[in-house]
Specification:
The chain is about 30% helix and about 25% strand. The protein is α/β, with parallel strands linked by helices. The strands form five sheets. Strands 1, 16, 17, 18, 19, 20, 21, 22, 23 and 24 form a ten-stranded mixed β-sheet that branches. Strands 2-3-6-7-8-9-12-13 form an eight-stranded parallel β-sheet. Strands 4-5 form a two-stranded antiparallel sheet. The chain starts with a helix and ends with a strand.
């Protein structure tokens, strides 16, 4: 019967796909529409970057508009340097707002002009700040000199950790700064709007340079910050600590110390037990490197960090249901380090970044399921770098206002809603294997699926850690548990030929200064592209079969809509 049902839908398959299906190497993907797993939470709708002053520049505004447009829910944006001293001039790994200075008598002087320009840009587009309380204003730093750094790619990364990374001279003045900032935001945007934001303290305070203090000093700063936020807006959501790499001993110890402080420690402000904690944040990164003249990713490293962080949160009975935000969730650690100085970052322009994103986000859902924790969001630390060379190898979503292929993966996520449903595959890595060993033995050909009342969506990928060529893989998709009727099937694709502005740029000869006509071609190609006209299929007895071919590092999205 299954064979008969399969042939009833052969008209849905192109001759290319039919021929591919006859290969003995076909990968089988099974999607069980009647086996829901949980909500298709938009954990992907979170983005971040170091340089806040790019926000209101021409390409920054353009990209933020594109991000807002791709998502059916409000997108959250996290940025560094919102309280850093300076004139607002942007630079790599730098930004400033000059929100806090002091007069000659040491009295606070608050200026919200620049930070308002940042938040105005977000709010106008329906975006939600994940408002980072940091970094330390020059007038409050215990070690203010030197303060402004001028780091460039290829230089010692530690050079960025200057006076802004130190604890305050006065925790009371810091607390009052935070109170005045939140109070101002409530007056400007309304308490109801600000109540939908997330307020978080600092970045990676666990001994990696961003925090030149102890864990105890961080907890003290957190208590003053949280008290100030809640004093200005009791309904505000505040959290931390944004440690990085919870699979490491040092990071795990910091996260455990902070969570114990928030649950059973003595509050530095009130003297009472514990501190307000509305969400928990930590970072998880992969570790690409160059092997035999090609880039090899390490998805497993990133997944192990996530799993370790989830396990720590789950070990606190009173906290395990709190929302978790992976505050930076990326293939590696330095967005501003281009491939010219860091050749392991050559994955960033093409489809490897796309397939990595698809394969790892699917596992984030599964890791949260396995640990029974409340994963709210995973921040992709990728934005844009204003007026930089085209496709220079930064970890960004767009270059000179033109979206990279990875942006189309988030456009795909934006089409997925409802309940996640069960998937399995003959060549899809089990969660434990990809977490523990990454993707080294063969391609990970997998799927993430979701279903609501109107449609079913399936994201499929052909991912491998090694950025090398390999034969295209034929894939046979088997769907079960579907309701009867006619459906329209549309396939969107990101590969070398579809949804790929980088390929277009290379075909033009990789011009350093594209002509207006060339920019127009790339602009037209900056979209999620269907591979062909939609097909109409009939579902009988709950079954549907569909075949396609996936090149290595390609990602497809099937949108199945009932007619």
């Amino acid at each position: 019967m299954k064979k008969l049902l399969y042939y009833t839908c052969l008209f849905c398959l192109s001759s290319r796909n039919v021929a591919a299906q006859q290969s003995t190497d076909t990968a089988l993907i099974t999607v069980r529409a009647d086996h829901p797993l949980g909500n298709m939470k938009p954990i992907w709708a979170w983005f971040g970057y170091d340089e806040p002053n790019y926000t209101y520049m021409k390409d920054g505004k353009k990209l933020l508009s594109a991000i807002a447009a791709l998502s059916p829910v409000p997108v959250h944006i996290r940025t560094h340097n919102l309280l850093t001293s300076g004139d607002g001039s942007p630079a790599l790994k730098w930004g400033s707002t000059n929100a806090y200075t002091e007069d000659e008598k040491g009295n606070p002087v608050y200026s919200w002009t620049i930070v308002d320009s940042i938040f105005d840009t977000y709010v106008k587009r329906g975006l939600k700040p994940m408002a980072q309380m940091g970094f330390m204003p020059e007038a409050l730093s215990t070690h203010p000199n030197p303060y402004r750094h001028h780091w460039q790619p290829g230089e010692d990364y530690r050079a960025i950790f200057t006076g802004w990374a130190y604890p305050p001279k006065s925790y009371e003045k810091w607390g009052e700064l935070i109170y005045q900032w939140v109070k101002h935001c409530c007056e400007r945007y309304g308490a109801a709007e600000v109540g939908t934001w997330y307020w978080e303290l600092w970045n990676e305070p666990n001994g990696h340079g961003y925090w030149q203090g102890s864990v105890e000093e961080y907890c003290k700063l957190y208590d003053y910050s949280a008290a100030a936020v809640k004093r200005a807006l009791p309904a505000a959501k505040v959290g931390g600590p944004h440690v990085t790499g919870p699979a490491g001993r040092e990071s795990a110890a910091f996260l455990n110390f902070f969570l114990r402080h928030c649950t059973t420690g003595t509050n530095y402000v009130s003297g009472q037990t514990g501190a307000p904690l509305d969400f928990i944040a930590f970072h998880a990164k992969g570790a690409p490197r160059v092997v035999s003249n090609h880039v090899r990713m390490n998805a497993g490293q990133q997944l192990r960090d996530m799993d370790a962080g989830f396990a720590i949160v789950a070990s606190f009975p009173t906290l395990r249901n709190l929302p978790i935000v992976i505050g930076e969730s990326d293939p590696e650690g330095c967005a501003a380090c281009g491939m010219a100085t860091n050749p392991e970052n050559a994955y960033r322009n093409g489809t490897m970044y796309s397939s990595y994103t698809a394969a790892t986000f699917a596992r984030k859902y599964l890791l949260a399921d396995a640990r029974q924790v409340n994963l709210l969001g995973a921040v992709s630390w990728s934005f844009e770098f204003e007026d930089q060379p085209w496709f220079f190898g930064y970890r960004d979503l767009a270059t000179n206002g033109i979206g990279k292929p990875v942006l189309n993966i988030f456009r795909m996520f934006g089409l997925m809603s409802g309940k996640r449903i069960e998937t399995s595959g003959s060549r899809m890595y089990p969660l434990s294997l990809i977490r523990d060993s990454s993707v080294r033995r063969g391609e990970d050909i997998g799927a993430l699926a979701a279903q609501d009342k109107q449609q079913l969506t399936i994201m499929l990928w052909n991912y491998h850690d090694d950025d090398t060529t390999a034969p295209t893989v034929p894939v046979r998709l088997q769907l079960t548990g579907l309701r009867a009727g006619k459906v329209q099937v549309t396939e969107y694709r990101v590969d070398e030929e579809h949804g790929n502005t980088y390929s277009l740029w290379k075909k033009m000869g990789a011009p350093l200064h594209p002509s207006p006509a060339q920019v127009g071609i790339m602009t037209a190609g900056d979209r999620l592209e269907a591979v062909s006209s939609p097909a109409i299929c009939t579902i009988n007895n709950g079954w549907l079969h569909y075949s396609l071919s996936l090149p290595r590092q390609a990602v497809s999205l099937l949108k199945i809509t009932w007619k």
